[in-house]
Amino acid sequence: MQASAVFPGAKAKVGMYESFYLRAVSPLDPIGVWIRHTIHKRPGHPPQGSLWFTVFDAVRGAPFMHKLTAPHPRVPPGGWVEIDGQARFGPGLAEGSCGAASWSLSFTTTEPELRHLRPEFLYRAPLPRTKLTSPAPLALFDGIVEVPGRAPLELAGWPGMVGHNWGAQHAERWIWVHGCQFADSPGTWLDLAVGRLAIGGRMTPWVANGVLSLDGVRQRLGGLFGRRPTVAETAAGAVLEVAGQNGSSLELRADVPRGAAAGWRYADPDGGEHDVVNCSIAGLRGELKDGSGQVTRVLRSEHGGVYELGMRERDHGVALAPFSDG
């Protein structure tokens, strides 16, 4: 799992943010866990660390959400990030607490790191201002997650992923989709980021970057050059069509169960804000098409998807957790 923290090398006068996160989903029930470890640094200020903890349960309805912020985030020996002196995240291990919630998890992966951006020079270029990778685009989690008001969640081989992003500013608008637990194709996974930038007061077209790993073979989706994706998105889900390899394409639908989305507010280092709606137990349906438009594969995941929408508007209808950012 190739990953390393960026924030220790940030210059004092420069603003930046960084996030290491995981998601895991029950193989049987529409229950999922999403835990973020973030660094937020305004220009001229020291970095602050935050823990964001969410458990989704479509049967119970609204997700359980909590957040805490503490000074002096650091990189622990052999790890990626430590928040509040006790919540640690690194290769193969995530443990900590956030309010009354706590977790002790181990995870394994056989998948190499996914670097979404292509060409590779985009990781060194000023744009996009957000860089992202998935150190473990498909992982299996074991351990315990404890949440007030319910029996402990015992994770035994729950599939999910580990992600990492950093930058000077969030995209102006973005969608992130991750998928696993596809029917009749247990090793298949999808990791796709779609974003728009604000440049000179104007919005760029959507650009997609990601991979569909099908039967052990990774197929690139999107890219800086070539056909642009088509996107129709709301807080309740989206329909996307993204170019693949050799003239192929993926048409994807993401659906959020009613009342099962988490709403958070993200701050940019420059003082701007986004509302972010995330559902880590979303339903996914994908159709892989060849160059002639014929469907060659249909993929379905009842609750193994993540659908996340980052936006400026506030009228999306999802209640936000009562925690500020920045």
Overall, the morphology is globular
Distance between the termini: 29 Å
Order of helices and strands: EEEEEEEEEEEEEEEEEEEEEEE
Structural class: mainly beta
Number of strands: 23
Note the total helix count.
0
**Percent of residues in helical segments?**
under 10%
What value does the Rg take, in angstroms?
18 Å
Sheet with most strands: 11 strands, antiparallel
Count of domain modules: 1
Question: What's the rounded overall pLDDT mean?
Answer: 96
Low-confidence stretches: none
Determine the strand fraction and express it as a percent band.
Answer: over 45%
Describe the model.
Strand 1 (16-25) and strand 2 form a beta hairpin. The chain has one domain (7-311). The strands form three sheets. Strands 1, 2, 3, 4, 5, 6, 7, 8, 9, 10 and 11 form an eleven-stranded antiparallel β-sheet that branches. Strands 12, 13, 16, 17, 18, 19, 20, 21, 22 and 23 form a ten-stranded antiparallel β-sheet that branches. Strands 14-15 form a two-stranded antiparallel ribbon. It is globular. It has strands at residues 16-25, 31-41, 48-57, 61-71, 81-83, 87-90, 93-98, 101-108, 114-115, 130-146, 153-167, 173-179, 189-196, 198-199, 202-203, 207-214, 217-222, 230-234, 237-243, 249-255, 262-267, 273-289, 295-311. With 326 residues, it is mainly beta. Helices cover 0% and strands 58% of the residues. The chain is built from no helices and 23 strands.
What features would you highlight for this structure?
single chain; 326 residues; mainly beta; eleven-stranded antiparallel β-sheet; ten-stranded antiparallel β-sheet; 0% helix
